[in-house]
Write a structure and sequence with these properties.
The protein has 391 residues and is of the alpha+beta class. The protein has helices at 37-40, 46-53, 180-183, 194-202, 219-226, 239-243, 249-266, 281-284, 317-332, 349-354, 365-380, and strands at 8-10, 17-18, 22-25, 30-33, 59-64, 69-80, 90-95, 98-104, 109-114, 119-123, 128-132, 140-145, 151-159, 163-165, 173-178, 205-210, 232-237, 272-276, 290-293, 300-303, 338-341. The protein is 25% helix and 29% strand. The radius of gyration is 21 Å and the shape is globular.
Length: 391
């Protein structure tokens, strides 16, 4: 810590955290969660336990005249055995809603995952500090967006001027649930994931329940969404159902109805947008499960199912889009605030030709921007289901 400043340490509390559903106190500080404690007790696997604790869309928000800000954290980073060590996670700073700086925190814990055996090895490391300097010496709204793929324990917030709670700007709250693409896989930073880009364009506050590998219509996720205050809700359904091969068509239909029914228990008239998967050629007409391919030292994915088994109820993205269209049309007869968006309008064949998926599943940073821009136009733009209403 630099000692030339007269530091003010501000307790990190729920008042300055956004995008969280729960906060756990640890031996180091506070750990933001994107599922409540009761839901976490029902999590069936390590994948979702890790994903919900990675703070995608989570940010500290406050008002201050500070010119220098330090945030002490203990990151838990993710690595895959046999692949190069990923770069450190990114902390993005916004000042009055505009991108101002980006930094990283070295050190921390490292969780090494063996994808062949699904075993995990944890190597512990020291905390570090995200530091932002040379900020304008005037009153300003500040947001620090946490790394979207690093579990981040918050230890201390220091500034060289007092911190106040950020004022309520009257923005609507958008609650979104989806897969690793919504979580932000391969995005350049936490404000560059497509939901964050769309939220910025739509002028809304994001609560991102995008969980890598875990958009599986879990009832506890639906109940968490039911209980979370929101003005706008979207659920992106498809890719994880197919690539994990967790259900057949017979189970999928009532699972979708049940998920939507549960959300509607808490949000009976809130605009609710069901979004199908973006284009993913390896899964369009081939069932899962998905398998990693490490040939050439680069991780890519391939579908291993038999297309002939679609007649027996095996799911593909094409099958799921057809079902979601039918389900939403059926329900919308009694629910005028329920809407459907084909994910290929966010990223389709022309986009794939221009911005191919590097690992055949996840978009690159440019494609995240394309998806975010398209969602903002189709959902928040004139005539869209999330367009502002007068009165």
């Amino acid at each position: 810590m630099n000692t030339k400043y007269d530091w003010i340490t501000t307790p990190i509390t729920g008042d300055i955290l956004r995008g969280v559903l729960d906060i756990e106190r640890t031996e180091h500080g506070l750990l933001p969660h994107r599922l409540p404690a009761w839901a976490r007790r029902q999590i069936p696997d390590e994948q979702l336990a890790m994903a919900e604790a990675q703070p995608s869309g989570v940010r500290l928000a406050f008002r201050t005249r500070a010119t220098t800000i330090e945030l002490d954290t203990l990151p838990t980073k993710r690595a895959y055995r046999g692949l190069p060590t990923p770069a450190d996670g990114v902390y993005d700073l916004l000042v009055d809603g505009r991108f101002a700086a980006r930094t990283t925190v070295t050190g921390g814990n490292v969780r090494t995952i063996d994808m062949a055996t699904q075993t995990v090895e944890l190597r512990e490391g020291p905390p570090g500090t995200a530091r932002f300097t040379d900020l304008p010496p005037c009153d300003k709204d500040v947001e620090i967006w946490l790394p979207h793929t690093e579990i981040t324990e918050l230890i201390a917030l220091r500034t060289d001027a007092p911190v106040e709670r950020a004022p309520d700007r009257g923005r609507r709250v958008w609650l979104h649930h989806g897969s690793s693409i919504s979580h932000g896989s391969n995005a350049a930073g936490p404000t560059a994931i497509w939901p964050a880009l769309a939220a910025a364009r739509g002028g809304v506050e994001l609560v991102n329940l995008g969980f890598g590998g875990s958009a599986l219509l879990d009832p506890f996720t639906a109940r968490a969404m039911r209980d979370t205050p929101a003005d706008l809700i979207s659920v992106k359904i498809g890719i994880n159902i197919v690539n994990s091969d967790v259900m057949r068509l017979r189970a999928f239909r009532p699972a979708v109805h049940g998920f939507l029914d549960t959300i509607r228990e808490g949000h009976p008239t809130t605009p609710l947008l069901v979004v199908s998967s973006i284009l993913c050629p390896v899964q369009e007409d081939t069932p899962g499960p998905l398998a990693p391919d490490f040939d050439g030292g680069t991780l890519r994915f391939t579908a291993t199912g038999d297309p002939a088994e679609r007649a027996a109820g095996r799911l593909t993205l094409t099958v799921i889009r057809d079902e979601l269209t039918r389900i939403v049309e059926q329900r919308a007869a009694d629910d005028p605030n329920l809407h459907y968006l084909d994910g290929r309008e966010l990223y389709g064949e022309k986009d794939y030709a221009e911005l191919p998926l590097p690992d055949e599943i996840h978009p690159d940073p440019a494609a995240h921007r394309r998806i975010g821009e398209n969602f903002a136009r189709l959902a928040f733009g004139p005539g869209g289901p999330f367009a502002p209403t007068s009165g």
